[in-house]
Structure formats: C-alpha cells, structure tokens
Amino acid sequence: MVKGSPSQGLLGTTLGFFFGFAAVSLYGPTAIKFKEAMELTPAMMGFLVAIPALSGSLLRIPFGAWVDTTGGKKPFLILMILSVIGLGGVTMLLNLAYPNNMHGLYGLILFFGFLSGAGIATFSVGIAQTSYWFPKHKQGMALGTYAGLGNLAPGIFSVILPFYLQSFGFISAYFAWFLFLVLGTITYAFIGKNAYYFQYLKLGKTQAESLELSFARGQENFPAGNVKDSLINSAKVKNTWALVALYFTTFGGFIALTAWFPVYWNQLHGFSVLKAGLFTAVFSIIASLVRVYGGKFADKVGGEKVSLISLVLVLLASITLSFDQSVVVGFSTTLLLAIGMGINNAAVFKLVPEYVPKAIGGASGWIGGLGAFGGFAIPPIMGAIASANGKEGYAMGFLVFVVLAIISIAIVLVLKRQHRRIVA
Questions:
Q1: Which of 46, 23, 52 is nearest to 34 (CA)?
Q2: Which one, 101, 143, 220, 260, has the greatest CB density within 10 A?
Q3: How far apart (Å, rounded) are the C-alpha atoms in residues 259 and 52?
Q4: What is the mean pLDDT of the chain?
C-alpha cells in the first residue's frame, strides 16, 4: 500500500535540493557581468548576489512547517516550479537586453533572482521530509548526508561555470542552467517520497491507524498539529531560537560567501573570473562534504560539543581573513572556514529532533529560514564595508563573521550548561 524506504526518501530529497540549489549558483560567479552591464556599485552588487537568499530563507519558514501536514513532496515541487520561473525570467531578459540595454532592468533582475531563490528554500522541506524517514539515532547521518551532498551544487557549478563561460558564453550558461533545473524538477517529481505516516493518511487511514502502521515500519518521528500549530509549537521552544542564531552564522554565512567569494577574489586579489570561481568552488565543496561527516561525528559525541569546536574554527579563520591579505594565507584560511561552517551546519540539525521532537517541520522552517537569511543579510554589509574602505574593505568585511562567531560560541556554552543541568 505504501512505497519507498528511508534510503529512497533520502535520495529523493538530496537530488531535489541539489537541483534547487544549483538554480542560484550562477549569480555569484557572474556578478561581474551584471556590474559591467549596469554599472553597479559594490553595495548594489552585494545586494544582487544576495537576493536569491532572501526568498531562499523566508520561504523556508512556511514551507518547512507545511511538511508536518503534507509530508513534503507538494511544497517541495511548488518551490522548484517557482525557481524555474525565476531562472527562466533572468534567462529571457539576458537574451533580450544583454549587454547594451540592461540599464533600468536592475529591479526586474532582482525580482527574478528572488524567485530563483525558492530553490534554496527546498532545504527546510527536505530536512523535515528526511527527518521523518529516519529513527532518532540516525538523524545526524541522514541529515548530514542530505544537506552535505545537496550543498555540493554551488561548489560543483563554481568549477564548471568558468569553463562553460569561456566556451559557450554568458547567456548560454543561464539557458543551460535553466534546462538543468527543469530536468531536476521532473526528476524529483518521480523520485521524491513522503514518509509512511503521510502516505497512510493520503490512503484514507485515520491518524491513529497511520501512526500505528508507520511505527511498525520503523518510523519514530511524527508531527503534532497543522502548519500553524507546528510553527507556534516550535516557536515556543526557546532553544529553537538558539539554533536559529547558530545556523545564521554558518549556513547563512556559507550561502553568503558562496556568492561573495568570487567578488572577493576578483576585486581584492585581481583574479580572473575563472580563477575566482575555482577558488570559490574549493570552499563550497569542502564545506558541503565535511557536513556529511560532521553529522556522523555529532551522532557520536553530541551536537553541542561539535558545534562549539566548529565555531572556534570559524572565529579563528574570520580574524585571519580580516587582517591578512596574502593569497596563500587567505586561501588556507578559507579552507579552515569551510570546515568550521560545514561541521556546525550538521551539528545544528542533529539537535533539532532532540530539542523540538513534536514539531520538526516547524523548527526546521524557523531554523532553516531565519538562519539562511544570513545569506541575504551578510553580502550587502560586506559590500558596504568594501565601498567605505576601498580595496582593503574586501578583507575587512570578514569582521562580520568575527562578531557572529563570538555570539554563537556564547550561545553554545549556554546550551551545554543547560544540557548538563537536564542530565543531572
């Protein structure tokens, strides 16, 4: 009567998120093209590369909570379709107006960029959808694998895109990525599966019957209430907001830097678009891959401890990047930053089922949504610092992460102290 398995559920969400995240991978590496065509300031360019993260964060909140009533597949598909419309719109404008007629189109580019960011919002849907498939002792592994492999998209395409641009051109790249996103949407529609509980409900079983039958199949996590209830119940848990702050620093930071690093390497160090893209890709891929192992590590030693270690790495790396402008030290430090961010991202969602077991979807929405808002909020701030301080400002912008890391470390210390009291 029901279809799928935990491994199949994980495959569907991971592929869907990978395709959805790929939709916005063009904006950072191609920001220089928009700057030249529309004569953008650094602050305007920072806002342009950040705009997909705005929808990618805000839409996570309601769509993540929606999983608690539908299982995830329906909201996931809606977000993918919105992203297809956004990327298709940008592609159309570039075909019609680039490069000589782009003046006056900045607002429209931002609008389509906003829609494109819906692909990032699939994250919170996939987190909750995946979480319902797996028992509590495998949450770190499952969610780390989902997010880590899904997050590979911007890194992989940061490698591919510069070569594609050289061979086929700027506009062709947007059209190719648009077709890729359409293919991904169709793929998820066929592969994506809801956990057993939601399948039984769709078949007409009562809530009690669905719970009993799905529990017998190994499902351990179940929703409580509708979308509104899920958001309200999770919002009432104060640790939800602690996790939001931690995720803002490292996942919001990850999205921000994936978009900002091509600008940083180009403007501060004079790298070509190709070289800047490759350096950015290394950061993005390492941050994504380490997230897989960070989840397994958190399963073994605890999410709070792993989070604390990773945030110390983020703090050290951010201090170094703020004051050292050499290429060798800068590149080495970005690797340390990637490791810290990737590990903490895994540790945070290991803690969600422990802190908010009755409203995983709602909590995932708040954490994924407001946390990812950092991807929108941080680049314009870094751009403003660059505008005010000239070339050196591109390095000084990392002081933002110094402040965020210090705040996050303090939050984790409070969580650890709280956890010890509960155990005692």
A1: 46
A2: 143
A3: 10
A4: 86
The superfamily CATH assigns to domain 6-423 is MFS general substrate transporter like domains (1.20.1250.20)
CA–CA distance, 19 with 320 (Å, rounded to integer): 34
What is the distance between the alpha carbons of residues 378 and 8, in angstroms, rounded to a whole number? 36
Residue 134 backbone zone (phi > 0: left; psi -120 to 50: alpha; other: beta): beta
Cα–Cα distance, 389 to 399 (Å, whole number): 13
Angle between the N-to-C axes of helices 118-133 and 42-58, in degrees from 0 to 180, rounded to the nearest 10: 30
- What is the 3-class SS of 257-273, one letter each residue? HHHHHHHHHHHHHCCCH
Confidence band of 226 (pLDDT split at 50, 70, 90): low
Torsion of CA 18, 19, 20, 21, to 10 degrees: 50
Distance CA 131, CA 144 (A): 11
DSSP for 106-152 reads: HHHHHHHHHHHTHHHHHHHHHHHHHHHHS-GGGHHHHHHHHHHHHTH
**What's the confidence (pLDDT) of residue 179?**
93
pLDDT for 276: 85
Take residue 407 and report the two structure tokens written for it.
Answer: 């705040």
Instruction: Round to whole Å and give the CA distance between 339 and 86.
Output: 31
Of the ranges 219-228, 230-239, 266-275, 303-312, which one carries the lowest mean pLDDT score?
219-228
Instruction: Give the DSSP letter of residue 249.
Output: I
Task: Determine whether 347 is exposed, middle or buried from the number of CB atoms within 10 Å of its CB (0-12, 13-18, 19+).
Answer: buried
Output the pLDDT for position 189: 94
Q: Where are the domains of the chain?
A: 6-423
User: Looking at residues 323-337, what average pLDDT do you find?
Assistant: 90
In angstroms, the CA 345 to CA 371 distance is: 10
- What is the structure's pLDDT at 419? 62
Distance between CA atoms of 192 and 43, rounded to whole angstroms? 39
Distance CA 247, CA 239 (A): 12
Model confidence pLDDT, tens digit, residues 121-178: 898 899 889 988 888 788 778 888 888 888 788 778 777 877 887 888 878 988 998 9
